[in-house]
Amino acid sequence: MKQWDSMNVKELRKELKIRNIPHSGNKKELIERLRQNKIINAEIVKNTNFKINIKMKITNQYNKLKQLPISALAIIVIMLLGTSGGAILYSEDIMDLISGEDNYILIDFDTNQSRTYAQTLVNLGHPEWEGRLSGTIEEKNAAESIKYNFSEMGIPSTLEEFQVPMFTMGNQFDLSACKPGDVGGILGGQSPCSFADINREIIEFTHREEFVLQGYSGSADIRYTSETNVVDLDIGNESSDWSGASDGIGLVWIREGQNEGDSTESNTILFQRAQENQLLALILVNDKSNCDELVIGDCVPYFKSLDASSFNTLPENIGLIMVSKSVGEYILDQVINSDSRLQLILDVQNQGKGTIYVPCGIIEGETEDLIIFGAHHDTVYNGQGAVDNTAGVATVQEIARQFSEIVSELGNPRYTIWFCTWGGEEEGLWGSKEWVKKHQSELKENLRLYINLDMNHVDLERNSGVILQGNSKEDIKHINNLLSIFKKEYSDLYDKYPIVVRELESTDMPYNSDHAPFVYEISEEEYGRSLICYGSGSSEYHTYLDTMDRFNEESLAVSGIIYGSLARHLSYA
Question: Which of 5, 72, 165, 327 is most solvent-facing, going by the fewest CB within 10 Å?
Answer without folding.
Answer: 5
